[in-house]
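Could you help me review a protein record that somebody else here produced? My question to you is simply how this chain folds and whether the tokens agree. Thanks in advance; the entry in question is below:
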Amino acid sequence: MTVLLVAHGTRNPHGVALIGDLACAMCERLDVDVSVAFVDVLGPSPSEALARLNRETTVVPAFLGRGYHVRRDIPEHLSRPGLPPTRVTDSLGPSDEVLAALVDRLDEAGRRRGDTVVLAAAGSSDPMAVADVEEVADRLSSLVDAPVTVAFAAPSPRVAHIPSVAEAVSRTRGRVAVASHLLAPGLFQSRLVESGADVVARPLGLHPLIVDRACALAARPVTV
């Protein structure tokens, strides 16, 4: 089996390295070849990577929601003529593993009982991506027994009801803990750190449950 891990892309070298490290962790766990592609910012693109591989490939979208990139960009790349057959899995999130990893990261960062939690995602105007984040916030609230507000690192004027992370923090009384609904470090994570919150969790990154989720998806792909 050959696996292609497809991520968004970032100019931050630590973010790029993290995706590579996730691919290496999958390779070691599954004992298969795992390559990396990006839908934006840098290459190779999914279609370029598939052309180089030139063999049947399982594609794992390294995204925490089912937004435009997962539903449109990746399928468009995979449908280009001349490419080998592919099997595409679900995205990393939303999932039970992502939720549990969010709680772990919050506790690791020093969240206290009674803290208000802000779930900070990258930002999107895609209705399904927004719905996914709001569902995660509802479920996270039950797990941490605290109010959870959704905020975006890059808010969209088309989704006016979701504030920036800094705005969400400033509107909240008492201690605030920010849960990072991000996979890798970069510009968006820096905005979380600069939001003024009392506690800011790390990105989900190489949390063991994220590795578990990626490997489980690769081992049980859905044909599309």
Summary: The chain has two domains: 2-92+207-219, 96-200.
